[in-house]
Amino acid sequence: MTRPQLDAQTMQREGGGWNVAATLTNTGQTENCFALADASRFKSKDPPPPIPILEGPQKCSDDLQLTDWHEVTREICKEENLNPLAMPVIFSQQAGGPRTWTAIPSHEIKELRKAIKDSGICSPYFKQLLKSTLEGHTLTPNDCKNLAGVILTDSQYMLWEFKWRRLLTNVLQMYRQSTDVDLRTLTMSKLTGDPPDDQNDNQVNLPKTALDDIKKMARRAFVQIQPAGSFEKAYNLISQDSSEPFTTFVDRVIQAAERQCGDDIARPIMIRDIIENNASPECKRAIKALGKERPTVPEMIDACNQIGSPQHVATIQANELGKTIGEKN
């Protein structure tokens, strides 16, 4: 699926906010958000075109409070020399109140982009930042796609969307067995935001459970993406190098398993086994010194972090002494 491109944009101001309407060339529909720019959006050397300011009130439905997207987009374009892009629009709902539109703050989006640039898309820092950002907002399908388009490369976006749709297929199959009629009657196009369900005004009315699952699958698809231009071996073949810190080895196994293994139940078990079996000889000795049949990952990390310390040396000596005494008896 190609990402929507702007054909025409109009902005009209009301009460300090901006109502944004973008006509999409690939759907012919109008959405209350920015459409994504084309594949050259990050590579353009030309300065971003000025965003027109059109005065004049426009009536907005009572349950929508639109954000000043003009200011949000202008801030990012100014600081990062980008062409105007779609920024996600999300909604919040107070108990008993109407659903209202708010924006993910531009600084949060910039932090995600910076985290990928500085630390990498596989880094624990990016994953934690992404998790905290998404947990603080409710996103529509369009929002998920727009956010991915802003922070990923074009090839990463295509891979992300492929994985996201595949995960949502499993969600839809689960809904088919639900006793909730609102979930049971959902279609794939409603979950992915494809026509005829590509307008935000309709997407915000999806069941809260569905919106949460859509966002959850979007985050899961993010962590399954490899760094651009990298090759990754099968996670069960990853082994600790002799000079590699144990925690670095653990991170490599966990990150690869999250991208390659979609079974949430089996994955932690397999990660534990791989870490124990593929650790370096020195770390294996430290793990074995714990005297436990199946030590947990935190226990193994703690034991291996003690390697070389007086406590670690004393533990090894005590174990060796115990073996010697046992053999004599």
Report what the structure shows.
This protein is mainly alpha-helical. It folds into two domains: 6-223, Human Immunodeficiency Virus Type 1 Capsid Protein (Orthogonal Bundle), CATH 1.10.375; 235-328, Retrovirus capsid C-terminal domain (Non-ribosomal Peptide Synthetase Peptidyl Carrier Protein, Chain A, Orthogonal Bundle). The protein has 14 helices and six strands. It has a three-stranded antiparallel sheet with strand order 1-2-3, with no helix packed on it. A three-stranded antiparallel sheet has the order 5-4-6. It is elongated, with a radius of gyration of 25 Å. The model is unreliable at 2-45, 48-70 and 82-89 (pLDDT under 50). This is Retroviral nucleocapsid Gag protein p24 C-terminal domain-containing protein. Residues 235-303 form the Retroviral nucleocapsid Gag protein p24 C-terminal domain.
Q: How does the overall form come out from the CA principal axes?
A: elongated
* Unreliable residue stretches: 2-45, 48-70, 82-89
Query: Rg, please?
Result: 25 Å
Instruction: Tally the structural domains.
Output: 2
The secondary structure category is mainly alpha
Helix content: 40-55%
Strand order across the biggest sheet? Answer: 1-2-3
CATH class of the largest domain: Mainly Alpha
- Strand percent estimate: 5-15%
CATH topology of the largest domain: Human Immunodeficiency Virus Type 1 Capsid Protein
Average pLDDT taken over every residue: 72
What name goes with the CATH superfamily of the largest domain? Human Immunodeficiency Virus Type 1 Capsid Protein
Order of helices and strands: EEEHEEHHEHHHHHHHHHHH
Please work out how many helical segments DSSP would assign.
14
- What's the β-strand tally? 6
Keywords: Lipoprotein, Myristate
Pfam families: Gag_p24 (PF00607), Gag_p24_C (PF19317)
Protein name: Retroviral nucleocapsid Gag protein p24 C-terminal domain-containing protein
